[in-house]
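If you are new to this repository, start here. Below is one unmodified record pulled from the training split, so you can see the exact layout before writing a loader.
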Amino acid sequence: MSKEKWYIAGLHFECQQCGNCCCGPETGYVWLAKKEAELMADRLKITPNQLRQKYCRRVGLRTSLIEQRQTKDCVFLESRNGHKCCAVYGTRPSQCRNWPFWNSNLNSPNNWNEAALHCPGINRGRLYSFDEIERLKKRKKWWQNEKP
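And here is the target side for that same chain:
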C-alpha cells in the first residue's frame, strides 16, 4: 500500500526571476548531461570540450557546472539592467528546469516551505497539479520534447 504524497492537491509556483535558485552562499552541484553540454556549447559557440574545461568540474564520474569564486553563484548567472538572468537559459540543465520540484524540496511540507524562504516564487502563482509535478521531477531529457 503506497503512502499518499503530501502535495497530492498540487503546489503553487511562479518564477519571480530573482536568481536566488542560482546563488550561493555555498558550493553546490548543477549536474550536466553529455547532451546538455553539447547544446550549451553550441549556444556559446564553443566546443563541448572547451565548455567542460572553462565552465565545469568533474565530481566522481559526473560533471557539474562551476560557481563564481567569490559569490558561489552559478557561473552562468549574469546581471543585466539590474536583473539576474541565466546566460544559457534556453539550454539550462534539467536540474535548473525542474526547480523547485526537486525531491529534496518535496520530501515534506517543511522542506517545501524552507525552500520558499529563499525562493519568492514558491507558494505563489500557478497551481501545478500532482501529475505535472511528478512529470517535472522525473524529466531528464528535456531536449527530446523542447527546442533549445
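Two things worth knowing about this chain: The beta strands are 11-13, 56-59, 62-65, 77-80, 83-86, 122-128. The CA atoms of residues 67 and 75 lie 5 Å apart.
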